[in-house]
Amino acid sequence: MSKVQMTRTKKTITIGGAKYDVYPETVRIKDLIINTFVRDGAIDQDYALSLAELYESGHEVTRILITSDLFVVDGRNRIAGADLAGKTEIDAYVLADKFDKKTLLAIAAVSNMGGSRAPTSSDMLLAITNMVQAGASAAWIRANLPLPPSVVDKYMFTVRSRVAAQKISEARRAVATGMTIEDAAQRYGADISRLRDAINGKSKKSTMDMFSHVKRSVTMRNKSDGMKNKTAFDNMVSAYKDGEVTKEQVMDVLDMIQHHGNLSVRLSEDFRRRFFQST
To answer: What pairs with residue 24 in β-bridges?
Structure first.
């Protein structure tokens, strides 16, 4: 596994009241590993494009936060923006100390709380869910997140319900491959009564209907976006021929379309990483 070669003087930064020793370094974007998620959603396209403009203009952007072995703790949108701007490197703070997965998730969540884009309830629910999956207890989360205990308890209730539902889902898949209901319930820690209800109460047809609907929606949306981009480009070419816009303006529109295309690729990669982390 690659590691950052520290070349600069260590300094201390504050995140949510806690102090962390870091090294300010410049790292290659392609070496970064993104597997810490505390936002309930993919990259914010508009925000990433705005950040790309800042990087292109040479404006100073807040450093991302990473570990010494190049795992990203905070800064996915900044990485997307720098990448869209054609940058191959990005400024980062490298944590001097080692932390386990649940602590890195807590640091990432607290970083978001103090940022310009405050986390939503869905974001916090995702962050706490991932902390629980990484081994955090309710008491540990209360001690490491600056949230009232009652708020943490509310999130934990939802997390436990989701974890139970995931166990049912995993057990259902095992039964579908030939495992008995009893063995599946025991293997995945699922409630056997709820497992039976889930197997008997939901038809395959409804699942296939949902799959077909989503697949059709994605296809239609992609076709629609493609047609809109083609229309916009055709209009600019026509205006250029009529002397209403310059060649540079046509190229600007092409660059914008390409930016959105590149961001769509990054979004699909982001979706894939998020899915594999949750399975």
So the answer is: 93
